[in-house]
Write a sequence for this structure.
């Protein structure tokens, strides 16, 4: 019997050592799960390996099948055979040419570090889009006939009926708009997206969406309807009362592909046979809000059999020069629901409610009312001292919605084509005010009001928390600031008459953004906007998407986004294609700076260190002691360096050498012009030293002097920063790089003005435009620029993850990581986690009972260097690790 047990144990040991590794999972195409509609000729495939100590990939095999509408089993069309490569992120299928409007299934398996093959993954899917404007030739742009364009337009309702003669196997709706659309089939809304197709420079590029509408169709009579809003295309945009940036009348283009069970096909197009009217939405605008009259609702307008005899014929609009592409970034969706607290009745008669969090989105109301009753809802980020809404900082934006009841009973309503930035709302028109004195009535009232949080539906990838509640609140404020401003484009603010894609804010915050959310697709789309906004000479506008008649361009640290953002995305995700797609634009920008520089020195122009505090008296935002030419020249050198590195990665060796030489030339010019013999730098501000140190623009013998002067200035200000957007964004990583973590922690923990924790004590739940946008003792700041949701200063989040949490990418996409947490600031534990392209990376440390303990999780198919606070180092493979060292000193 003992021998049998021994033999069985040998058998089981052999079985497990030779068993297939667990199948790969988290399968993505173009960084999306089962995407519907991708417009790339060479899709990229990614997968995660099963976790385990030392788990790695040595080879893989990938196979692709075409899925016909009438045969789900699939026809094999491509296979890789065994590929001896560790690549599990963005692998391409060489020789595979996807066909337009086609559905594919794919599977992958891998060989692990022991040479054992895994099980095949489950099938994942992707579907190509129309892949070019030619596929849209029969679809026409259709719109409401000419109207009074001197005021906001009522959204147009368009409809068409058609007959389905036999059972349908597959149906796809391809739809876009100049403006915004909401689509319906047989009375059911298509999808759950907002503000589609999104914001682009519509003259050059427009996006379309693809929906699987098979379940919505039936044999017999069917109807398709759409609502068209002005949105970014024709509504109020680009400050104050500007309208019609890209056109006057919203228009629709649509194609519905039907495949029947017998394999035959049919198509429905937008054309002159559609009908159009207006409905209950009287007007809808991003800045001003939406007005809705339920008396004008049209029952059944989006269903078959509706009598549309009074509707007008649509107007067919001319074709434009825009390229139609499948939507690249995730659509805007409602990602969370918040409920308010009722504060009471303000002196102006409004009922004031508080959602407890400055958010971006809309309301869903199911309130009771009576026929003819009108509710008016205003939005604000803050309250005045008397409890009324503070709206002065919205400038000309009205930010007001209204609803008129058509009958007694409960409404069920949300705005369609607007959004607001707010924490507080004021409702007027409530007739039953018993809720003010009745706790149950008040509770019931609040249940009828929901705040729908809207932003692009990016996967949440990072989390951070620690022992310090104020730092946790700061991290929360950073995340909420990103959520509120990552709505179609990276806006500066989401509430006032602006909401524009300022390039400087985006490049300053980009790296922090990658820690909180997966922003690859978001920035891939926006970089297409940047390229569309680039002038023939290489200059880039301050705002992207650009307004057609916008000529302001070339500002240092703003236009440099064309080079900085692709580089950040490459480093954080290992996305080589973003360098390929943007290389020519990056090069054009660097060449523009070269031709407009004087012996390597950029002109004294641009925004400088916007909102810096280095001058007494808080002058105009652009008036600082940091020379604008210095900012421009520093970024010139920085971008030349990035371009040289990008060229080398892409195999453009002659360009790599050319721009390495340009970088050396500009660096030397910077030193000659701005660095003085005594080690001081022109302007003598914190920002000038930060730029010189961060971008390596100093002779080695001058670096200690620059470090000393930087720290001396911070000390002289009682350990406070005086930087603006440019300097603040690089402050903490630079202090860390020069070994001044103690100074960085001192700045982080400052609870007095100016500093990251100061606004928290003033009630901030998002990042603010100014450190003192509001103070309890002095009230509100300058209404001209006083956003309470402005993410640029949130760039400190990068350092929080990298240093307090300890997560840094050493090789692109965290293929190799550095885990090096540095305790400080009285923090006794911290945890940072990040879903990298390879899987979850985690660092958790704590100081307890005289010990520093670190727990880490390293994703499969990656490696890491672990550096402990005592300087000890260890190189590790993937897996879970625990470390412990003595910790005699106080944290």
């Amino acid at each position: 019997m003992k021998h049998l047990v021994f033999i069985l144990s040998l058998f089981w040991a052999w079985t497990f050592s030779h068993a297939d590794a667990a199948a790969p999972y988290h399968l993505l195409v173009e960084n999306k799960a089962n995407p519907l509609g991708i417009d790339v000729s060479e899709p990229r495939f990614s997968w995660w390996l099963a976790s385990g100590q030392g788990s790695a990939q040595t080879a893989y095999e990938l196979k692709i099948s075409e899925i016909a509408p009438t045969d789900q089993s699939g026809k094999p069309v491509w296979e890789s055979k065994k590929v001896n490569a560790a690549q599990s992120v963005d692998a391409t299928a060489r020789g595979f040419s996807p066909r337009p409007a086609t559905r594919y299934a794919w599977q992958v398996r891998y060989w692990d570090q022991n040479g054992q093959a895994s099980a095949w993954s489950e099938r994942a899917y992707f579907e190509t889009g129309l892949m070019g404007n030619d596929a849209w030739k029969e679809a026409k742009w259709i719109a409401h006939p000419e109207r009074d364009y001197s005021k906001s337009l009522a959204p147009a309702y368009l409809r068409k009926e058609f007959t389905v003669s036999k059972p349908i196997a597959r149906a796809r709706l391809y739809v876009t708009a100049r403006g915004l659309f909401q689509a319906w089939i047989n009375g059911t809304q298509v999808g759950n997206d907002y503000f589609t197709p999104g914001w682009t420079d519509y003259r050059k590029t427009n996006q379309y969406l693809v929906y699987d509408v098979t379940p919505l169709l039936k044999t017999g009579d069917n109807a398709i309807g759409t609502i068209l809003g002005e949105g970014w295309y024709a509504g109020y945009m680009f400050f104050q009362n500007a309208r019609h940036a890209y056109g006057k009348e919203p228009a629709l283009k649509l194609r519905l592909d039907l495949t029947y069970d017998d394999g035959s096909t049919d198509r429905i197009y937008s054309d002159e046979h559609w009908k159009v009217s207006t409905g209950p939405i009287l007007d809808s605008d991003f800045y001003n809000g939406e007005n809705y009259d339920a008396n004008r609702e049209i029952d059944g307008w989006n269903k078959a059999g509706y009598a549309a005899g009074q509707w007008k014929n649509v107007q067919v609009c001319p074709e434009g020069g825009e390229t139609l592409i499948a939507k690249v970034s995730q659509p805007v969706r409602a990602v969370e629901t918040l409920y308010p607290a009722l504060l009471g009745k303000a002196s102006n008669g409004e009922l004031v409610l508080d959602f407890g969090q400055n958010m971006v989105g809309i309301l869903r109301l199911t309130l009771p009312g009576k026929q003819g009753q009108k509710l008016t809802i205003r939005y604000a980020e803050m309250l005045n001292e008397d409890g009324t809404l503070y709206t002065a900082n919205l400038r000309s934006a009205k930010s007001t919605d209204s609803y008129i009841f058509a009958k007694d009973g409960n409404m069920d309503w949300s705005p369609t084509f607007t959004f607001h930035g707010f924490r507080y709302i004021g409702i007027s028109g409530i007739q039953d005010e018993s809720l003010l004195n009745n706790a149950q009535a008040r509770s019931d009232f609040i249940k009828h009001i929901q705040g729908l949080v809207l932003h692009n539906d990016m996967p949440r990838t990072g989390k951070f928390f620690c022992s310090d509640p104020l730092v946790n609140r700061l991290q929360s404020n950073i995340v909420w600031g990103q959520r509120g401003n990552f709505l179609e484009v990276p806006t500066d603010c989401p509430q006032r008459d602006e909401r524009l894609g300022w390039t400087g804010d985006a490049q300053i915050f980009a790296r922090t953004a990658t820690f909180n959310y997966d922003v690859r697709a978001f920035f891939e789309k926006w970089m297409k906007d940047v390229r569309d906004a680039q002038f023939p000479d290489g200059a880039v506008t301050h705002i992207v998407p650009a307004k057609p008649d916008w000529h302001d361009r070339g500002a240092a640290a703003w236009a440099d986004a064309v080079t900085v953002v692709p580089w950040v995305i490459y480093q954080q995700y290992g996305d080589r294609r973003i360098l390929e797609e943007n290389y020519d634009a990056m090069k054009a920008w660097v060449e523009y700076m070269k031709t407009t520089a004087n012996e390597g020195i950029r002109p004294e122009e641009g925004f400088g260190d916007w909102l810096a505090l280095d001058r007494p008296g808080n002058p105009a935002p652009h008036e600082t002691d940091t020379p604008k030419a210095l900012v421009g020249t520093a970024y010139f050198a920085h971008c030349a360096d990035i371009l040289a590195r990008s060229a080398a990665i892409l195999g453009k060796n002659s360009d790599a050498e050319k721009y390495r030489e340009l970088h050396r030339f500009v660096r030397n010019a910077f030193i000659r012009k701005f660095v003085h013999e005594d080690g001081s730098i022109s302007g003598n501000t914190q920002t000038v030293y930060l730029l010189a140190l961060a971008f390596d623009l100093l002779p080695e013998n001058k670096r200690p002097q620059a470090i000393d002067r930087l720290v001396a200035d911070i000390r002289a200000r009682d350990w406070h920063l005086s930087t603006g957007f440019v300097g603040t964004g690089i402050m903490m990583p630079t202090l860390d790089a020069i070994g001044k973590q103690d100074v960085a922690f001192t700045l982080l923990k400052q609870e007095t003005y100016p500093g990251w924790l100061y606004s928290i004590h003033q009630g901030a739940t998002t990042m603010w435009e100014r450190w003192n946008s509001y103070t309890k003792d002095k009230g509100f700041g300058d209404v001209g620029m006083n956003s309470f949701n402005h993410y640029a200063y949130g760039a400190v989040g990068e350092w929080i993850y990298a240093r307090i949490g300890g997560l840094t990418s050493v090789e692109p996409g965290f293929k190799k990581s550095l885990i090096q947490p540095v305790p400080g600031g009285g923090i006794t534990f911290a945890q940072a986690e990040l879903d990298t392209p390879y899987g979850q990376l985690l660092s958790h440390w704590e100081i307890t009972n005289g010990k520093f303990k670190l727990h880490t999780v390293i994703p499969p198919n990656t490696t890491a260097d672990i550096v402990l606070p005592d300087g000890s180092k260890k190189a590790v493979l993937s897996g879970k690790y625990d470390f412990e060292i003595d910790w005699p000193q106080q944290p």
About this structure: The mean pLDDT is 95. The CA atoms of residues 718 and 750 lie 10 Å apart. The chain is about 25% helix and 30% strand. The longest strand covers residues 851-867.
